[in-house]
Amino acid sequence: MINKSVAELIESEGLLLQEIHIKGWVRTFRSNRFIALNDGSTINNIQCVIDFENTSEETLKRINTGAAVSIKGTLAASQGRGQSVEVQVSEIKVLGDSNPDEYPIQPKKHSFEFLRENAHLRVRTNTFSAVMRVRSKLSFAVHQYFQERNFNYVNTPIVTGSDAEGAGEMFRVTNFKDNEAPLAEDGTVDYSKDFFGKETNLTVSGQLEAETYAMALGKAYTFGPTFRAENSNTTRHLAEFWMIEPEVAFMDLDGNMDLAEDFIKNVLNSILESCKDDLAFLDQRLTQEEKSKPQAERSDMSLLEKLRFVVDNNFKRVSYTEAIDILRNSKPNKKKKFQFPINEWGADLQSEHERFLVEKHFKCPVILFDYPADIKAFYMRLNDDGKTVRAMDVLFPGIGEIVGGAQREERYDVLVEKMKAMNIDEKELWWYLDLRKFGTAVHSGFGLGFERLVQFTTGMSNIRDVIPFPRTPQNAEF
Ligand code: 4AD
Ligand code: MG
Protein backbone atom coordinates (compact mmCIF):
# COMPACT_ATOMS: atom_id res chain seq x y z
CA MET A 1 0.00 0.00 0.00
CA ILE A 2 1.51 3.33 -1.09
CA ASN A 3 1.04 6.44 1.05
CA LYS A 4 1.31 9.56 -1.09
CA SER A 5 -0.12 13.06 -1.21
CA VAL A 6 -2.63 14.06 -3.87
CA ALA A 7 0.07 16.19 -5.53
CA GLU A 8 2.36 13.19 -5.79
CA LEU A 9 -0.37 10.87 -7.07
CA ILE A 10 -1.41 13.27 -9.82
CA GLU A 11 2.18 13.61 -10.96
CA SER A 12 3.01 9.92 -10.87
CA GLU A 13 1.55 7.92 -13.68
CA GLY A 14 4.12 5.26 -12.80
CA LEU A 15 1.89 4.31 -9.89
CA LEU A 16 -1.01 3.27 -12.10
CA LEU A 17 -2.76 0.11 -10.91
CA GLN A 18 -1.01 0.30 -7.55
CA GLU A 19 -2.86 0.02 -4.26
CA ILE A 20 -2.79 3.40 -2.56
CA HIS A 21 -3.93 4.98 0.70
CA ILE A 22 -4.77 8.67 0.97
CA LYS A 23 -6.38 10.96 3.50
CA GLY A 24 -7.94 14.33 2.82
CA TRP A 25 -11.10 16.38 2.87
CA VAL A 26 -14.13 16.08 0.64
CA ARG A 27 -14.55 19.11 -1.61
CA THR A 28 -17.62 17.80 -3.43
CA PHE A 29 -19.52 14.55 -3.68
CA ARG A 30 -21.82 13.99 -6.62
CA SER A 31 -24.08 11.25 -7.92
CA ASN A 32 -23.31 9.20 -4.78
CA ARG A 33 -20.20 8.16 -6.69
CA PHE A 34 -17.58 10.85 -7.33
CA ILE A 35 -15.60 12.44 -4.51
CA ALA A 36 -13.34 15.39 -5.31
CA LEU A 37 -10.71 14.92 -2.62
CA ASN A 38 -8.20 17.55 -1.56
CA ASP A 39 -5.42 17.20 0.99
CA GLY A 40 -3.88 20.67 0.68
CA SER A 41 -0.80 19.48 -1.18
CA THR A 42 -2.01 21.01 -4.45
CA ILE A 43 -4.78 23.15 -5.88
CA ASN A 44 -5.93 20.03 -7.75
CA ASN A 45 -8.38 17.52 -6.35
CA ILE A 46 -8.13 13.84 -7.02
CA GLN A 47 -11.31 12.12 -8.11
CA CYS A 48 -12.18 9.10 -6.01
CA VAL A 49 -14.81 6.82 -7.49
CA ILE A 50 -16.97 4.89 -5.06
CA ASP A 51 -18.65 1.61 -5.69
CA PHE A 52 -21.85 2.76 -4.02
CA GLU A 53 -23.56 -0.59 -4.16
CA ASN A 54 -20.92 -1.92 -1.80
CA THR A 55 -20.83 1.16 0.42
CA SER A 56 -23.23 1.40 3.33
CA GLU A 57 -26.04 3.93 3.25
CA GLU A 58 -24.73 5.32 6.53
CA THR A 59 -21.27 5.97 5.13
CA LEU A 60 -22.64 7.55 1.94
CA LYS A 61 -24.62 10.00 4.08
CA ARG A 62 -21.50 11.03 5.92
CA ILE A 63 -19.52 11.91 2.79
CA ASN A 64 -20.20 15.64 2.91
CA THR A 65 -18.25 18.69 1.85
CA GLY A 66 -15.56 19.32 4.46
CA ALA A 67 -15.53 15.81 5.94
CA ALA A 68 -12.15 14.19 6.57
CA VAL A 69 -11.84 10.77 4.96
CA SER A 70 -9.39 7.93 4.64
CA ILE A 71 -9.48 6.14 1.31
CA LYS A 72 -7.88 2.94 0.09
CA GLY A 73 -8.08 1.92 -3.52
CA THR A 74 -6.40 1.50 -6.87
CA LEU A 75 -4.91 4.32 -8.91
CA ALA A 76 -6.37 4.18 -12.40
CA ALA A 77 -6.22 6.20 -15.59
CA SER A 78 -9.23 8.50 -15.55
CA GLN A 79 -11.99 8.48 -18.10
CA GLY A 80 -13.25 11.84 -16.86
CA ARG A 81 -12.17 15.15 -18.29
CA GLY A 82 -9.69 17.40 -16.51
CA GLN A 83 -7.69 14.71 -14.71
CA SER A 84 -5.25 12.04 -15.71
CA VAL A 85 -5.68 9.68 -12.78
CA GLU A 86 -8.40 8.74 -10.32
CA VAL A 87 -8.82 6.37 -7.43
CA GLN A 88 -11.10 3.35 -7.65
CA VAL A 89 -12.13 3.18 -4.01
CA SER A 90 -12.10 -0.18 -2.26
CA GLU A 91 -12.46 1.15 1.29
CA ILE A 92 -13.55 4.51 2.64
CA LYS A 93 -13.66 5.62 6.27
CA VAL A 94 -15.09 8.92 7.42
CA LEU A 95 -12.60 10.21 9.98
CA GLY A 96 -14.34 13.46 10.81
CA ASP A 97 -17.87 14.48 9.90
CA SER A 98 -18.91 17.85 8.56
CA ASN A 99 -22.55 18.70 9.02
CA PRO A 100 -23.75 20.26 5.75
CA ASP A 101 -26.35 22.37 7.56
CA GLU A 102 -23.64 24.03 9.63
CA TYR A 103 -20.42 23.99 7.59
CA PRO A 104 -19.88 27.54 6.25
CA ILE A 105 -17.64 26.63 3.30
CA GLN A 106 -20.00 25.20 0.71
CA PRO A 107 -18.98 24.41 -2.85
CA LYS A 108 -20.10 27.75 -4.24
CA LYS A 109 -18.67 31.24 -4.54
CA HIS A 110 -18.29 33.01 -1.20
CA SER A 111 -17.45 36.70 -0.85
CA PHE A 112 -14.02 37.58 0.53
CA GLU A 113 -15.77 39.52 3.33
CA PHE A 114 -17.63 36.39 4.39
CA LEU A 115 -14.44 34.35 4.22
CA ARG A 116 -12.55 36.89 6.35
CA GLU A 117 -15.13 36.26 9.06
CA ASN A 118 -14.31 32.59 8.69
CA ALA A 119 -10.55 32.99 8.44
CA HIS A 120 -10.03 29.72 10.32
CA LEU A 121 -11.76 27.86 7.49
CA ARG A 122 -11.08 30.00 4.44
CA VAL A 123 -7.77 28.28 3.70
CA ARG A 124 -9.91 25.27 2.73
CA THR A 125 -11.02 27.14 -0.40
CA ASN A 126 -9.13 27.03 -3.69
CA THR A 127 -8.26 30.71 -3.65
CA PHE A 128 -6.90 30.86 -0.12
CA SER A 129 -5.07 27.56 -0.27
CA ALA A 130 -3.36 28.77 -3.45
CA VAL A 131 -2.48 32.14 -1.89
CA MET A 132 -1.09 30.56 1.26
CA ARG A 133 0.98 27.99 -0.60
CA VAL A 134 2.44 30.80 -2.71
CA ARG A 135 3.09 32.80 0.47
CA SER A 136 4.98 29.89 1.96
CA LYS A 137 7.07 29.34 -1.17
CA LEU A 138 7.77 33.08 -1.36
CA SER A 139 9.12 33.15 2.14
CA PHE A 140 11.40 30.21 1.29
CA ALA A 141 12.54 32.05 -1.86
CA VAL A 142 13.37 35.11 0.26
CA HIS A 143 15.61 33.10 2.56
CA GLN A 144 17.12 31.25 -0.38
CA TYR A 145 17.98 34.49 -2.18
CA PHE A 146 19.83 35.94 0.78
CA GLN A 147 21.38 32.72 2.01
CA GLU A 148 22.83 31.95 -1.42
CA ARG A 149 24.47 35.37 -1.36
CA ASN A 150 25.91 34.95 2.14
CA PHE A 151 23.62 37.34 3.96
CA ASN A 152 23.23 36.50 7.64
CA TYR A 153 19.69 36.07 8.91
CA VAL A 154 19.40 38.17 12.05
CA ASN A 155 16.44 38.13 14.44
CA THR A 156 15.92 41.64 15.68
CA PRO A 157 13.85 42.30 18.82
CA ILE A 158 10.09 42.61 18.70
CA VAL A 159 9.87 44.52 21.95
CA THR A 160 11.86 47.71 21.65
CA GLY A 161 12.52 50.99 23.39
CA SER A 162 13.17 52.94 20.20
CA ASP A 163 10.98 54.24 17.39
CA ALA A 164 12.95 53.29 14.28
CA GLU A 165 10.85 55.33 11.91
CA GLY A 166 10.34 58.26 14.29
CA ALA A 167 6.69 58.33 13.30
CA GLY A 168 5.27 57.46 16.71
CA GLU A 169 2.94 54.80 15.36
CA MET A 170 3.70 52.19 17.96
CA PHE A 171 1.82 49.76 20.18
CA ARG A 172 2.77 50.09 23.83
CA VAL A 173 4.04 47.01 25.66
CA THR A 174 3.43 47.24 29.39
CA ASN A 175 3.00 44.97 32.37
CA PHE A 176 1.04 47.52 34.39
CA LYS A 177 -2.43 46.38 35.38
CA ASP A 178 -5.50 48.45 34.48
CA ASN A 179 -5.56 51.74 36.36
CA GLU A 180 -2.62 50.68 38.49
CA ALA A 181 0.23 52.31 36.60
CA PRO A 182 2.39 54.28 39.05
CA LEU A 183 2.63 57.98 38.31
CA ALA A 184 5.73 60.15 38.39
CA GLU A 185 5.66 63.51 40.13
CA ASP A 186 4.59 65.31 36.97
CA GLY A 187 1.55 63.05 36.67
CA THR A 188 2.78 60.97 33.73
CA VAL A 189 3.06 57.19 33.94
CA ASP A 190 6.35 56.13 35.53
CA TYR A 191 7.65 53.47 33.17
CA SER A 192 10.86 53.10 35.12
CA LYS A 193 8.77 50.87 37.39
CA ASP A 194 7.45 48.81 34.47
CA PHE A 195 8.76 45.35 33.51
CA PHE A 196 11.63 46.58 31.34
CA GLY A 197 12.33 49.66 33.44
CA LYS A 198 11.50 51.91 30.50
CA GLU A 199 8.82 52.68 27.98
CA THR A 200 8.62 49.83 25.45
CA ASN A 201 6.68 49.18 22.27
CA LEU A 202 6.27 46.60 19.52
CA THR A 203 8.81 47.31 16.83
CA VAL A 204 7.92 49.13 13.60
CA SER A 205 11.11 47.95 11.89
CA GLY A 206 14.21 45.92 12.66
CA GLN A 207 16.42 48.22 10.63
CA LEU A 208 18.35 49.98 13.36
CA GLU A 209 19.38 46.71 14.97
CA ALA A 210 20.04 45.15 11.54
CA GLU A 211 22.49 47.99 10.88
CA THR A 212 24.53 46.94 13.92
CA TYR A 213 24.87 43.47 12.39
CA ALA A 214 25.69 44.73 8.90
CA MET A 215 28.50 46.76 10.47
CA ALA A 216 30.06 43.54 11.73
CA LEU A 217 28.91 40.72 9.45
CA GLY A 218 28.87 42.81 6.29
CA LYS A 219 25.58 41.50 4.94
CA ALA A 220 22.55 40.92 7.13
CA TYR A 221 18.81 40.57 6.68
CA THR A 222 15.77 40.36 8.90
CA PHE A 223 12.47 38.70 8.12
CA GLY A 224 10.05 39.16 10.94
CA PRO A 225 6.81 40.65 12.20
CA THR A 226 6.47 44.42 12.49
CA PHE A 227 3.67 46.47 13.98
CA ARG A 228 2.17 49.82 13.12
CA ALA A 229 -0.54 51.55 15.06
CA GLU A 230 -1.52 53.75 12.14
CA ASN A 231 -5.25 53.97 11.67
CA SER A 232 -5.12 53.21 7.96
CA ASN A 233 -8.10 51.25 6.79
CA THR A 234 -6.83 50.58 3.29
CA THR A 235 -6.33 47.54 1.09
CA ARG A 236 -2.55 47.89 1.58
CA HIS A 237 -2.14 48.38 5.33
CA LEU A 238 -2.02 45.95 8.22
CA ALA A 239 -1.34 46.68 11.87
CA GLU A 240 0.80 43.52 11.99
CA PHE A 241 2.80 42.64 8.91
CA TRP A 242 6.02 40.88 7.98
CA MET A 243 8.97 42.82 6.71
CA ILE A 244 12.20 41.76 5.02
CA GLU A 245 15.07 44.13 5.71
CA PRO A 246 18.48 43.54 4.14
CA GLU A 247 21.31 45.79 5.27
CA VAL A 248 24.75 45.88 3.64
CA ALA A 249 28.01 47.53 4.66
CA PHE A 250 30.02 49.42 2.02
CA MET A 251 27.00 49.60 -0.30
CA ASP A 252 25.67 52.92 -1.58
CA LEU A 253 22.23 53.84 -2.86
CA ASP A 254 22.91 52.60 -6.40
CA GLY A 255 23.90 49.23 -5.00
CA ASN A 256 20.76 49.30 -2.87
CA MET A 257 18.54 49.89 -5.90
CA ASP A 258 20.33 47.10 -7.78
CA LEU A 259 19.82 44.75 -4.83
CA ALA A 260 16.11 45.55 -4.45
CA GLU A 261 15.44 45.06 -8.15
CA ASP A 262 17.45 41.87 -8.42
CA PHE A 263 15.89 40.47 -5.26
CA ILE A 264 12.30 41.07 -6.34
CA LYS A 265 12.89 39.67 -9.83
CA ASN A 266 14.63 36.66 -8.41
CA VAL A 267 11.92 35.67 -5.94
CA LEU A 268 9.17 36.23 -8.51
CA ASN A 269 11.05 34.05 -10.96
CA SER A 270 11.35 31.27 -8.46
CA ILE A 271 7.61 31.41 -7.77
CA LEU A 272 6.86 31.27 -11.51
CA GLU A 273 8.81 28.01 -11.43
CA SER A 274 7.66 26.47 -8.16
CA CYS A 275 3.98 27.46 -8.05
CA LYS A 276 2.80 26.85 -11.61
CA ASP A 277 -0.55 25.25 -10.75
CA ASP A 278 -1.44 27.76 -8.05
CA LEU A 279 -0.48 30.70 -10.26
CA ALA A 280 -2.49 29.30 -13.17
CA PHE A 281 -5.50 29.12 -10.87
CA LEU A 282 -4.94 32.62 -9.46
CA ASP A 283 -4.45 33.97 -12.98
CA GLN A 284 -7.86 32.61 -13.98
CA ARG A 285 -9.43 33.92 -10.80
CA LEU A 286 -8.14 37.42 -11.41
CA THR A 287 -9.27 37.37 -15.03
CA GLN A 288 -12.78 36.50 -13.83
CA GLU A 289 -12.69 39.25 -11.21
CA GLU A 290 -11.53 41.78 -13.81
CA LYS A 291 -14.53 40.94 -15.98
CA SER A 292 -16.84 42.26 -13.29
CA LYS A 293 -15.11 45.66 -13.38
CA PRO A 294 -15.96 48.51 -15.73
CA GLN A 295 -13.84 48.40 -18.90
CA ALA A 296 -11.81 51.48 -17.97
CA GLU A 297 -10.63 49.94 -14.69
CA ARG A 298 -9.61 46.61 -16.13
CA SER A 299 -5.97 45.69 -16.28
CA ASP A 300 -4.69 44.96 -19.78
CA MET A 301 -2.41 42.23 -18.45
CA SER A 302 -3.23 38.94 -16.80
CA LEU A 303 -1.54 38.00 -13.54
CA LEU A 304 1.06 35.83 -15.24
CA GLU A 305 1.76 38.54 -17.78
CA LYS A 306 2.27 41.07 -14.98
CA LEU A 307 4.69 38.78 -13.19
CA ARG A 308 6.68 38.10 -16.35
CA PHE A 309 6.66 41.78 -17.19
CA VAL A 310 8.28 42.66 -13.88
CA VAL A 311 10.83 39.88 -14.18
CA ASP A 312 11.77 40.78 -17.77
CA ASN A 313 11.91 44.58 -17.66
CA ASN A 314 14.16 47.10 -15.99
CA PHE A 315 12.64 49.15 -13.23
CA LYS A 316 12.59 52.82 -14.17
CA ARG A 317 14.78 54.92 -11.87
CA VAL A 318 13.56 58.48 -11.42
CA SER A 319 14.54 61.18 -8.96
CA TYR A 320 11.87 62.71 -6.75
CA THR A 321 12.49 66.06 -8.45
CA GLU A 322 11.84 64.59 -11.92
CA ALA A 323 8.74 62.84 -10.58
CA ILE A 324 7.36 66.08 -9.20
CA ASP A 325 7.80 67.74 -12.59
CA ILE A 326 5.96 64.91 -14.28
CA LEU A 327 3.17 65.01 -11.73
CA ARG A 328 2.85 68.77 -11.73
CA ASN A 329 2.37 68.79 -15.49
CA SER A 330 0.18 65.69 -15.58
CA LYS A 331 -3.39 65.72 -16.86
CA PRO A 332 -5.01 64.67 -13.56
CA ASN A 333 -3.13 67.42 -11.74
CA LYS A 334 -4.11 70.10 -14.24
CA LYS A 335 -7.71 68.89 -14.28
CA LYS A 336 -7.71 68.85 -10.46
CA LYS A 337 -8.39 65.12 -10.39
CA PHE A 338 -5.87 64.38 -7.64
CA GLN A 339 -7.26 64.52 -4.13
CA PHE A 340 -3.92 66.04 -3.12
CA PRO A 341 -2.86 68.43 -5.91
CA ILE A 342 0.87 68.69 -6.58
CA ASN A 343 1.92 72.31 -6.51
CA GLU A 344 5.35 72.53 -5.04
CA TRP A 345 8.57 70.66 -4.70
CA GLY A 346 8.61 69.10 -1.25
CA ALA A 347 5.11 67.67 -1.32
CA ASP A 348 4.79 64.15 0.09
CA LEU A 349 3.65 61.69 -2.54
CA GLN A 350 0.32 60.00 -1.93
CA SER A 351 -0.63 56.64 -3.31
CA GLU A 352 -2.66 58.31 -6.11
CA HIS A 353 0.56 59.97 -7.32
CA GLU A 354 2.63 56.82 -7.03
CA ARG A 355 0.04 54.89 -8.97
CA PHE A 356 -0.16 57.54 -11.67
CA LEU A 357 3.60 57.35 -12.21
CA VAL A 358 3.66 53.56 -12.31
CA GLU A 359 0.40 52.68 -14.01
CA LYS A 360 -0.22 55.61 -16.33
CA HIS A 361 3.05 57.37 -17.00
CA PHE A 362 5.90 54.84 -16.97
CA LYS A 363 3.78 51.69 -17.12
CA CYS A 364 6.45 49.69 -15.28
CA PRO A 365 7.86 49.40 -11.75
CA VAL A 366 9.54 52.64 -10.73
CA ILE A 367 12.29 53.40 -8.21
CA LEU A 368 12.02 56.94 -6.93
CA PHE A 369 15.12 58.29 -5.19
CA ASP A 370 16.56 61.43 -3.58
CA TYR A 371 13.48 62.57 -1.68
CA PRO A 372 13.24 65.82 0.28
CA ALA A 373 14.83 65.34 3.69
CA ASP A 374 11.78 66.75 5.45
CA ILE A 375 9.42 63.97 4.42
CA LYS A 376 11.76 61.06 5.19
CA ALA A 377 13.16 59.38 8.31
CA PHE A 378 16.07 60.76 10.32
CA TYR A 379 18.60 58.07 9.42
CA MET A 380 18.78 58.75 5.66
CA ARG A 381 22.00 60.19 4.26
CA LEU A 382 21.88 63.87 3.45
CA ASN A 383 22.91 64.81 -0.11
CA ASP A 384 25.35 67.62 -0.82
CA ASP A 385 22.44 69.86 -1.84
CA GLY A 386 21.52 69.93 1.85
CA LYS A 387 17.82 69.35 1.13
CA THR A 388 17.45 65.85 -0.29
CA VAL A 389 18.34 62.48 1.20
CA ARG A 390 19.51 59.23 -0.35
CA ALA A 391 16.12 57.57 0.00
CA MET A 392 14.49 55.18 -2.42
CA ASP A 393 11.01 53.75 -2.77
CA VAL A 394 10.13 50.98 -5.18
CA LEU A 395 6.64 51.50 -6.60
CA PHE A 396 4.60 48.68 -8.10
CA PRO A 397 1.49 48.62 -10.27
CA GLY A 398 -1.67 48.03 -8.24
CA ILE A 399 0.30 48.16 -4.98
CA GLY A 400 2.11 51.48 -4.85
CA GLU A 401 5.07 51.41 -2.47
CA ILE A 402 6.40 47.91 -2.02
CA VAL A 403 9.91 48.81 -0.82
CA GLY A 404 11.25 51.72 1.20
CA GLY A 405 14.97 52.08 1.80
CA ALA A 406 17.97 54.38 1.93
CA GLN A 407 21.67 54.88 2.15
CA ARG A 408 22.17 55.54 5.86
CA GLU A 409 23.73 58.66 7.33
CA GLU A 410 27.16 57.40 8.34
CA ARG A 411 28.58 60.77 9.53
CA TYR A 412 28.31 61.14 13.30
CA ASP A 413 27.95 64.92 13.40
CA VAL A 414 25.44 65.11 10.58
CA LEU A 415 23.33 62.39 12.19
CA VAL A 416 23.34 64.07 15.60
CA GLU A 417 22.26 67.36 14.01
CA LYS A 418 19.47 65.58 12.19
CA MET A 419 18.23 63.84 15.32
CA LYS A 420 18.17 67.13 17.18
CA ALA A 421 16.22 68.78 14.39
CA MET A 422 13.71 65.91 14.32
CA ASN A 423 13.36 65.66 18.11
CA ILE A 424 14.80 62.19 18.35
CA ASP A 425 16.29 61.33 21.70
CA GLU A 426 20.04 60.83 21.29
CA LYS A 427 20.26 59.14 24.68
CA GLU A 428 17.77 56.49 23.59
CA LEU A 429 19.78 55.72 20.44
CA TRP A 430 23.29 55.93 21.91
CA TRP A 431 24.11 52.52 20.54
CA TYR A 432 22.99 53.52 17.04
CA LEU A 433 25.25 56.55 17.22
CA ASP A 434 28.14 54.31 18.36
CA LEU A 435 28.13 52.71 14.90
CA ARG A 436 29.13 56.14 13.58
CA LYS A 437 31.83 56.51 16.21
CA PHE A 438 33.58 53.19 15.72
CA GLY A 439 34.45 52.07 12.21
CA THR A 440 31.71 53.92 10.42
CA ALA A 441 31.24 53.28 6.70
CA VAL A 442 28.82 53.83 3.88
CA HIS A 443 25.97 51.36 4.23
CA SER A 444 22.47 50.89 2.90
CA GLY A 445 19.39 48.74 3.13
CA PHE A 446 15.70 48.56 2.54
CA GLY A 447 12.47 47.12 3.84
CA LEU A 448 10.07 45.14 1.72
CA GLY A 449 6.55 44.58 3.01
CA PHE A 450 6.09 40.84 2.61
CA GLU A 451 2.30 40.98 2.34
CA ARG A 452 2.51 43.56 -0.43
CA LEU A 453 4.80 41.20 -2.29
CA VAL A 454 2.35 38.33 -1.74
CA GLN A 455 -0.44 40.61 -2.97
CA PHE A 456 1.40 41.39 -6.15
CA THR A 457 2.37 37.77 -6.74
CA THR A 458 -1.12 36.38 -6.20
CA GLY A 459 -3.14 39.24 -7.67
CA MET A 460 -5.24 39.60 -4.51
CA SER A 461 -6.57 43.11 -4.19
CA ASN A 462 -6.92 43.26 -0.40
CA ILE A 463 -3.92 42.79 1.88
CA ARG A 464 -6.24 41.15 4.45
CA ASP A 465 -6.49 38.20 2.09
CA VAL A 466 -2.79 37.36 1.90
CA ILE A 467 -2.01 36.91 5.61
CA PRO A 468 -3.64 34.06 7.55
CA PHE A 469 -5.16 36.15 10.34
CA PRO A 470 -5.08 39.88 9.56
CA ARG A 471 -4.78 42.47 12.30
CA THR A 472 -6.39 45.76 11.35
CA PRO A 473 -8.14 48.56 13.26
CA GLN A 474 -11.07 47.09 15.23
CA ASN A 475 -10.12 43.56 14.31
CA ALA A 476 -7.98 40.95 16.07
CA GLU A 477 -10.24 37.91 15.79
CA PHE A 478 -8.68 34.42 15.79
O1 4AD B 1 8.81 52.44 4.18
P1 4AD B 1 8.86 51.78 5.52
O2 4AD B 1 8.16 52.42 6.64
O3 4AD B 1 10.42 51.60 5.82
C1 4AD B 1 10.97 51.13 6.95
O4 4AD B 1 10.38 50.68 7.91
C2 4AD B 1 12.48 51.07 6.88
N1 4AD B 1 12.98 50.94 8.25
C3 4AD B 1 12.90 49.93 6.02
C4 4AD B 1 14.39 49.82 5.88
O5 4AD B 1 15.00 50.67 5.25
N2 4AD B 1 14.99 48.79 6.43
O6 4AD B 1 8.33 50.29 5.37
C5 4AD B 1 8.92 49.39 4.46
C6 4AD B 1 7.87 48.63 3.69
C7 4AD B 1 6.95 49.50 2.86
O7 4AD B 1 7.54 49.82 1.62
C8 4AD B 1 5.74 48.60 2.69
O8 4AD B 1 5.96 47.63 1.68
C9 4AD B 1 5.71 47.88 4.02
O9 4AD B 1 6.99 47.96 4.58
N3 4AD B 1 4.73 48.48 4.95
C10 4AD B 1 3.54 47.93 5.24
N4 4AD B 1 2.94 46.81 4.82
C11 4AD B 1 1.72 46.53 5.31
N5 4AD B 1 1.08 47.29 6.22
C12 4AD B 1 1.64 48.44 6.67
N6 4AD B 1 1.00 49.17 7.59
C13 4AD B 1 2.92 48.79 6.18
N7 4AD B 1 3.76 49.82 6.42
C14 4AD B 1 4.85 49.62 5.67
MG1 MG C 1 8.00 54.02 3.23
Distance between the termini: 39 Å
CATH fold-level label of the largest domain: BirA Bifunctional Protein, domain 2
CATH homology superfamily of the largest domain: Bira Bifunctional Protein, Domain 2
Characterize the largest beta sheet: strand count, sense, and whether it forms a barrel: 8 strands, mixed
Number of helices: 14
Number of strands: 17
Brief digest:
With 478 residues, the protein is of the alpha+beta class. The chain has 14 helices and 17 strands.
Key terms for this structure?
478 residues, OB fold (Dihydrolipoamide Acetyltransferase, E2P), 8-stranded mixed sheet, 5-stranded mixed β-barrel, globular, binds 4-amino-1,4-dioxobutan-2-aminium adenosine-5'-monophosphate, binds magnesium ion
Structure commentary:
The mean pLDDT is 95. By secondary structure, this protein is of the alpha+beta class. It has two domains: 107 residues, Beta Barrel (OB fold (Dihydrolipoamide Acetyltransferase, E2P)), CATH 2.40.50.140; 308 residues, Bira Bifunctional Protein, Domain 2 (BirA Bifunctional Protein, domain 2, 2-Layer Sandwich). It has 14 helices and 17 strands. Strand 3 and strand 4 form a beta hairpin. It has an eight-stranded mixed beta sheet, with helices on both faces. Strands 2-3-4-6-5 form a five-stranded mixed beta barrel. 32% of the residues lie in helices and 23% in strands. Bound molecules: 4-amino-1,4-dioxobutan-2-aminium adenosine-5'-monophosphate and magnesium ion. 4-amino-1,4-dioxobutan-2-aminium adenosine-5'-monophosphate binds next to strand 12, strand 16, strand 17 and helix 14. The site of 4-amino-1,4-dioxobutan-2-aminium adenosine-5'-monophosphate has 23 residues, from strand 12, strand 16, strand 17 and helix 14.
